[in-house]
Structure formats: C-alpha cells, structure tokens
Amino acid sequence: MRLRTAHEELSGDRLADFLALLARLLKDNLERCQADDVYLSQKYKSENRDKPWNGCEDAHKRCVRKLFGEGRILSR
C-alpha cells in the first residue's frame, strides 16, 4: 500500500530514497526466505536429522505468504 501512494506524498530524492529502501528490504527478505527454505529442504535429508531447526519449520509457508499474501493460503 505504501508503494502505491508514495508518489503522492514524496518526490525527488526522498521518493528515490524510499523506493531504494523498499527494494533493499524486499531483496533482504527474499534472500532470507530462500536461505530458510533451502535449510528446511536440507533438514529432511537423513544425514541432517540431528541438526537444529533454526526456526525453519514453517519456512515454506512464510515464503508463500511473502510472495502471494496471507489471503492466498488455505488452512487445513
């Protein structure tokens, strides 16, 4: 929502800085999501069964939420 209205509230350098900040936050979040998802998939290999979860038990759900939004996930 903030991205949609940013051009109405900001201009020039402030708008550019805001958009750069959003892009960096998105990139950082997606990279973390990818790393968590890779860790989760590696955790299911037999040689990694004793490794800690490191909070990645629900990595796949968190990635879907980030990419598509909360409303697109069906609860079971």
Describe the protein in words.
The chain is an all-alpha fold and 76 residues long. It is 66% helix and 0% strand. The protein is built from three helices and no strands. The chain has helices spanning 2-9, 12-43, 59-68. Helix 1 (2-9) packs antiparallel against helix 2. The longest helix is centred in the middle third of the chain and has 32 residues, at 12-43. It is elongated. The model has no long low-confidence stretch (mean pLDDT 86).
What are the defining features of this structure?
single chain, 76 residues, mainly alpha, 0% strand, DUF6062
Sheet with the most strands, sense and barrel status: none
Structural class comes to mainly alpha
Mean pLDDT: 86
Q: Rg, please?
A: 17 Å
Strand element count: 0
